[in-house]
Amino acid sequence: MKPMISGLLIVIAFRSSASTHGEDCQDAESCSQLLLQTHLFTRDRAEEYHWASGRGNFPKYAVSAHPAPFNLPAAFTWQWHHPLGRFATLTYGTVIDGESNIYLSAADGVRKFDQHGTILWEYLSLPAEVMNAPALYSGMVHASDTHGHIFALDMRTGKQVWRTRVAEKIGQDNGFNMVHEGIALAACDHRKPSNYDEANQKVKALNASTGDELWTFHPDTPVWNFLPLFVDDSSVVFQDMTGKVYRLNLSTGLLLWKAGGLNGTWTDGGVAVGPNGLVYAVNLNLTTPRPPNNAPAVGIVKNLKGFSVVMPLCQQQTRGATCDVHVYDAETGGLRWIFHGPAQTGVLQAGDAEGISRRIQHGVRAACLPNGWSAPTIDSDGTVFVGNEEGNFYALRDMDGDGVIFGEDEVALYDTKASFAGSSSPAVAPGLLAVASCDSLFVFKSSTIHPTGF
């Protein structure tokens, strides 16, 4: 659930470092001087999969090694919603395995589809809801539910391999389950106090094979939309709801450093790890014109030199509020291009008000209450893919270099009729693009000539 906020937010960067255990970097300037002492490794078990987590593959999160189709209407191939009706569940994160099968988390469980849209299995979870984006690792689908369980399913059969209850509740925000080097991470212990009502108070690490608990970490402030990203094979970074960044030893949970954050504030955003050795965080400030309420993507954007930061901006749940996508220079923070998205037209975002009664009837939360944008993805061509709260799923690129994204050769869209949850991130595989709105799964293929839906 996403509360309304009135502040403005900024993406800030810290130079990653394996510094002395427990070192507390109190300001961004001092942390930015720390050199990256460990290198991003290019091999991981996630390489078996095309899109292994809600933010893609380590180490190039939110960036695909494959091109995705730009002409979305022509590439649309199939969609899925609950057989009892579009509003019978809420849909969240997508991941794709090495055979281009798609896994979808939803309020009522997890489903596996082949690339043609056939359901191969479903794992039903109600009354517990699966709000977070899942992760693929070593033949298993890792996820968590609102009743405090972290669990793993056999990718082939959908059968439960293990389930561990780590808390009474896990929050109904839209976070991410992540796995690396045999360790599964998730946030838990959803309760007060926090800077916004209830929130997850703890970070848990489990053995990815057995579900045995390994360690627990208590951040200074609770986490929201928990997104842990691995900077190497031995450490992980994430941020709390104030924008403070933590780097932990992955094996032990020991704090390596923490930095930034604005006490007493709240953000819907998450970190990004850049290939330039920087960690980008989101917190409250007066730099961006609207809140950047999601996790940025860092990579090569079409027709731009060097690395760029793609940051969606929007004041969600506010009628008339405008929504933009900004692209910044990853080293300097300079604005490189901007796309002006549509303003929110209704009292709630697309698809939310229409489905309230049906969702309640089917035993899931009444509304998606999403961010203004989904999390963005950059494909190998440098095209940005992102979903908007008015229902449009966009492909964006700057072909003429004027810094404004406009026209049919720079903007393609497909109207999904619904907004996108915070854990929603377009997933890319060879010739295939998948994204979940708040109520349906949409799949696009590069070779599609006669699109069909069901």
Automatic annotation (TrEMBL):
Keywords: Signal. PANTHER family: CELL SURFACE PROTEIN, OUTER MEMBRANE PROTEIN ASSEMBLY FACTOR BAMB. The keyword Signal applies. It comes from the Eukaryota. The keyword Signal applies. The lineage of its organism: Eukaryota, Sar, Alveolata, Dinophyceae, Suessiales. This is Pyrrolo-quinoline quinone repeat domain-containing protein. InterPro entries: PQQ_b-propeller_rpt (IPR018391), PQQ_rpt_dom (IPR002372), Quinoprotein_ADH-like_sf (IPR011047), WD40/YVTN_repeat-like_dom_sf (IPR015943). It comes from Symbiodinium natans. It holds the Pfam family PQQ_2. Residues 104-168, 200-259 form the Pyrrolo-quinoline quinone repeat domain. Residues 1-22 form the signal peptide.
